[in-house]
Structure formats: structure tokens, C-alpha cells
Automatic annotation (TrEMBL):
It comes from Rhizobium wuzhouense. CDD domains: MFS_YcaD_like (cd17477). Keywords: Membrane, Transmembrane, Transmembrane helix. PANTHER family: MFS TRANSPORTER, TRANSPORTER MFS SUPERFAMILY. InterPro entries: MFS, MFS_dom, MFS_sugar_transport-like, MFS_trans_sf, MFS_YcaD-like. The chain crosses the membrane at residues 7-29, 41-64, 71-92, 98-119, 131-148, 160-180, 201-220, 232-252, 264-283, 289-310, 322-344, 350-370. This is MFS transporter. SUPFAM superfamilies: MFS general substrate transporter.
Amino acid sequence: MLSSLASIATLMLSTLLMMAGFGLMGYMLPIRSLNEGWSTFIISVIATGYTFGFTVSCVVTPIFVRRVGHVRVFGALITLLTVSILLCSLVVEWWAWMIFRGLAGFAIAGAYLLIESWLNERVTNENRGALFSVYMVTCLVGSIGGQYIVPLGNVNGPELFIICALIFSLALFPVALSTAQSPTPIAEARFDLKRLYRRSPIAFFGSLLSGALSGTWGSLGGVYSQTIEMTTTQGATLLAAFLAGGALSQVPIGRLSDRIDRRLVMIGCGLFGVAACLAMAAFDAQNATAIYVAGFFVGTVLYPVYSLNVAHANDLAEPDEYVTLSSAIMILYGLGTVTGPVMAGSLMQWFGPNALIFFLATAFALYSGYAAWRISRRPDTAADKTDFQAVAIPMQGTDGASPLNDPDR
């Protein structure tokens, strides 16, 4: 076990630093946007740049890797991340930030793909759970740690932007100087939306809704915390509570779904999400602890739904369809992350910050309701289920059943 951990030590150090910069960037930019006087709708439009770049990278990055290799592409992507945050400090215009955020989304998605590809080469059936747990904890600690850097500085000045760029730059060194052998090239994404719908309609629509859920909160959660007049430290704690909830719940929810009809678990997650959102909306910044607790419970179901969609689709797929269906889910998830923030941002502009929470509650209700309807249309037909695999929390669009993995697992 120790030798397995040693084999991924440099990779995890790069991941920790990258996620610290990611957490800092993801919380700092919405606060700065509010301070610039930009509306929640404009901020949501900026967020679509990030999610669009993220989705495109999931398709394009494997092509670059096949041409020049993992290390060179990783270096280029980390450089692009560094450039994107520095450009945000130089050109403070919303239309420019949408472009810069697109660059960041492209870079971070590509880096995720590379890291997971590298990690999958190091795991076996015996150590898979342990090593992916280390990976998930590393992502969680890095992201939360980066968020807590924000209260230590001034988002209206250049200092935090420079610190973020420095952290991203440092993330390049462990992988660049590692003597470990590079993994085999990433498989190019092939997707077939019609086939996904035929195999699993709930995975088709559930992927759109799960993208809307996590993309909307990831893009506008910081805006929500500031518009209800939380301090930057309180806002960082709220974002951390969501991530912690998702980290702790993924495996228990997944194991339960391995034992019963996964759609029953989807219904339960949706109903629980509605209840947690309504509880969260009942409090304000004067009841910060209550909001943290409610946010934790929202997070416990907000992040695992993507993995449930992948698992259900793979339950009904032929072995040679895993990559194609997972790629289709990834594309639909990306579409949800693009459209969700714009819709929620518009509602927040008209009805105030709690509109974000009610938007999440509505998405949870649709997810639960559609799963219930599908049960009435088709009984559970998965005779031999695939094993549920948890997703590293900060990720949007990749998971253990993504195109990085061996399709014949």
C-alpha cells in the first residue's frame, strides 16, 4: 500500500496545488464581479464561458495528448490556467472575463483528464478504493484551502490574482520533474446521444439536470453567499460545507444503489435535495450555522447524482458501449452546466438570492419526478449491475466511468 501511495505522491502534490488555485479562483472571481457592480445575470453569463470551455476540452484534450504526450500537455494547460487568472486582473471587463474563464475551463478540464488517466494507470482492483479516496481527499482539501485564502486578501487588488497564478505555476513542478513513466494515451471521446436515450432515458435527462445542479451552485454559490451578506469567511465555509457533504455521501449512496433499483435512490436523492434546499432558504446570514448545516445536506445529494446517472446507463449497456455512453453523459452534463447558471442568474436578478436555492430545489424535484415516472414505465431490468464509482468532488464532467478508463473493465 505504501509503495502504491509513493507512486502517485508527485501527482497528488500537483493536484493539491492545482485545486488550491482552483478554489481560490472560483470564490474570488464572483466576489470581485459583485464589487464591480455586475448583475447576477452578467455573472452567470461569465460562468457559461467556463463551462463551455470545460466541455470542449473533454473532447479536444485527448487529441493533443495522443500527439505530444501527457507531460507536455499538462504543462501547457497549467500555463493556460496561470495566464487566464492574470488576464482577469489586467482586463476587468465582463466580456473579457467570459473569454478568460473559457480558457480556464478548458485548462482545468484537460488537467482533470490527465490526472485521472495517470491515476488509473497506477491502480489495481486491490488498491483502487484506497488510491481514489486519497485522490478525492486531495481535491477536497486543496479546493477548500484555496477558498479560505480569499478572506486573507483584498479581492479588489491584484495580490490575490498573483497568488493564484503562483499556486498554479507551482502545480507544474511535481509532474514536470517526476521520473514516473507517462500513462498510455487517453481514448478520444465518442458519443451517441440517441443510443444513450434508448439505453437509459433517466441517465439522458438526469445528466442535464445534474449538470444544471452542480454547475449552477459552482458558478453562483459565491454570489449567493455575498448577496445574503455573509462575510468572505462565512461564504468560504458554506462552499466547504457543500463539498464536504458530497465527499462523505458519495460512497454510501453508491453502495445503496448497488443493492436496489438505482432509480429508487435517485428519487430519494431528489426528494432529500428539495427538503434540504427549502430548509436552507428559510435562513439568512444571521443564522449562518443553520445555513452551513442545510448546505451540507444539499451537497450530500447534489454531487452524487452524476455518478448515479453513469452507473444506471452502464447497468443497461453492452460492454463495448461504456465509453460511448459515458461520453454522451459528459456532453449532456456540460450542456446542463452551461444553461443552468444563466437561468438561475436571471431568476436571482429578478427575485433575489434565494431564487438560486429554489432553482436547485426545482431541479431536484424534476430529477426525482422523472425517475419515478421511468419506474412506472419500465421495471428494473439490470440483472448484473456495474459497480458504482464515486466522482472526485470538484470535478465537472469526468468520473470513474469516463472515457479515460478501460472500456472493458
